[in-house]
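ingest -> validate -> predict -> emit
validate: passed (alphabet ok, no gaps, 415 aa)
predict: started
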Amino acid sequence: MDLTATPTLGLDRSRQADPAAYAIRGQVPRVAVRPADRDEVAETLRAAARDHLAVVPWGGGVGVPFVPAPRRYSVALDLRALDRVIEYDPEDFTLTAECGVPLGTLADTVATRGQELPLEAAQERRATLGGVLAMNASGPRRRRFGSPRDRILGARFALGEGTLARTGGRVVKNVAGFAVHRLLCGSRGGLAVLLEASLKLAPAPARRTALIYALDANALGDAERWSALTRLEPGWLTVLGRESGSRVPGIAGAPWVAILGLEDDDAWVERQRAIAEQALGTPSQVHEGAEAEALRRQVTDADVPASVRLSFASAHVSPHALAPVLALPGAATLVFHAPAGRLHLAVGEDQAAGVVARLAALGFALVDAAAPDPIAPAIPTTAALRALRSRVRGALDPHAVMALGSRWERGLDSV
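emit:
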């Protein structure tokens, strides 16, 4: 196919974009297009399948640092023009929107009705709904709200050869059939292109409070000190290493910082705060209301860029479980969302395998590795699971149009 003569894959030339803006780890696509609606997305995919081109869906680009360079990369498919809120039903606590809309826009929409969209992602003013779903991204409140695949009710999507499909529904009571929409959460655009999604909302809490504690290694590793927090039901509790903490305005100096977020009615927030202060002492900072919510968003943004970012899941839900981690490479960049047992570290490529092995011995299982190339040891999987993934990919993308599909097939999706 001559991409110089037909740079927009059959679309109007106004849909073309600069390919250089869509590089993945230095790899630039041959063409970039920005369809105006789902029919144009389908047309693009049909053309790509016909001409054996490899496509990468794009939203705000927030997740790009966590994606290895694809083996083939012909077309960048920018979905940000699909940015409509299609249906918002405050009474039913549901919302349906196109997947190119920024997460922050949806948050603003539902906040006017005292509700919130319980999805979290870094840079929510850039991150799109489709990107957050495709990454199955979550943040400090993962235990409270679950991951995106727990919130999605249904979706419209385009298969690799351009067929438009839909599974699930727009409200809880009419969700039926195979939950392919949940399968697409975490597939990173490797199986299909998400076009539209319906989501469950949540009521906004009456009060938000955030308590900040500066910690040294002794305080962080004191199991008895943290044991009292098992009586709490915090909205979130995150520990940050020095480098990660430096990315949160107003937090600097301490080797590690713990931030306890309380979200509930006034009486229960006050009771939880009293328990926390009895166990941990007087916090160095206290934030209320909009300041506490802004702090949570800043914590969600706190990951430090590095050549390799490792993510682990664990049954450990108390900050003292980090004590043996503090001597490992990447400790200064750690982000630990304690109630969810989620630990993120940034390390050098030559350190990754050793860190994975050491943390496995401490009860932390690798669930994602963002690196220029796949690193060893790989995320554990089985031959049967790989075979199943291959069949699923063959059904949804029979012509291997989706450039990131091989990564999903190997089991390297975010969970």
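Confidence is low (pLDDT under 50) at residues 1-7.
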